[in-house]
């Protein structure tokens, strides 16, 4: 049962986890250093707790307490109760979805664990936008993918914005970081996956042809700006494209992923 | 040829179009009232000007001028030259993509004009998020759709964030507002379109079955939160779903649109 603690001043040190949530650089630093992440909104907080992440604390305005009473009953962490104005002062924005929680990160699973039994996997190279990472996880979960692997420099799925966009998929879909960028795709090939890179390369074939009849597939996606690295593009088993209308550069990476997941799920 | 005007103070009234770009409510009000919209970044500004939107003015730091020299040569509007620090002070954020332009809105085309010759059309009811509107336009353009119709309350495709995400598709893909919400779908049916609503309704069929063999198709998409209105869901000719994994609520509307466009384009 969470202990309820009323707090009335913005500079109370117990609110340190919740400061300046709109300052991406500051938050990345602070969250990595303290091994924490932030969840926002009743639904997301509930999924994080039920997904087994231990809470460090909760931050609530009085009228948000009822919706999460069952979750608060499960957790020994303190629940800081503040006015909505104080919540806004501390976080730097109007918390319109209510509840916030600061949660402890857990050690990431191994690649072996994440791939155990998986038949359809997403592999993200250097996606930089948290919204895209969240949207990709949500689409992967909805369209029947089993796991997600992230290159070392891919944006953090446990960043607040990514979690919010993923609608909790980050807590249900198994994912981890790849320890080795250079040989990541050959390693997947040696594990029996056919690696299919989405790219605009001239030898790319339509994605439905690229995945037709395959058993274990790893769909490989590159950065928003410049796409995949040369290394990954060259070490993928196949290169695939989503056929597009003449004169259009490309699809947004989250949209392309949704289409590719749909097609791959029906291979 | 744009006239170059150096400006050194943030309160110069000539910079009024560029104030507080992160304040969504203020901007919606100001832009509607003055019939203007903002484009951000060299690529987007170029597409807006080449798309025929008259510039009211440009706002540039000196090092951004070269990239748009050809575009500035085409326009009689003034180009305000400011330091990057001053640009940040006026707009309220770090303008990392460079160039800004304030452009004049044009009268929207009629529904007749937008549908002339169209075979695949997107119809957006009350999408509220500008990122989603932009992503949907980009996917529609990339996946071969011919036009977009917006319900009266759908978010503005000419809002800065929507334009940026659409990567200029808002300037190339024909679109307009529907004058009448209530009979919008029956009107499309009477024009020979089969209206296919994406929904989680129990009688929805998989989207590939719903569009198979159809000639003129209007894909109908609802709001992020509660989906389509009852009126639109009931007046659509067909209800379709993107098959999803068990236990997942739904796809993000932009991801669902990308999949539905892909499937519809290959009907």
From TrEMBL, chains A, B:
One of its GO terms (molecular function) is RNA methyltransferase activity. Keywords: Methyltransferase, Transferase. One of its GO terms (biological process) is RNA processing. CDD domains: SpoU-like_rRNA-MTase. InterPro entries: Alpha/beta_knot_MTases, Ribosomal_eL30-like_sf, rRNA_Methyltransferase, SpoU_MeTrfase, tRNA_m1G_MTases_N. It holds the Pfam family SpoU_methylase. This is Putative rRNA methylase. It comes from Nocardioides simplex.
